[in-house]
Amino acid sequence: MLGTYFYNEIFRKTVVGFGTLFNNIELRRSNEVMKVPLAYGPKQKFLARLDQNPDPTNRGVQITLPRISFEINGIDYDPSRKVSPTQTMKRVKSDDSSKADTRFMPVPYNLGFELSIISKNQEDGLQVLEQILPFFQPHYNLSMKLAEDDDVRDVPIVLNSIGYEDDYEGNFATRRAIIYTLTFTVKTYLYGPVQESKLITKAIVDSYTTTATPAPREVRYQVTPDPITADADDDFGFGEIYSEFVDNKKYNPVTGQDEDL
Question: Residue 181 pLDDT > 90, yes or no?
Answer without folding.
Answer: yes
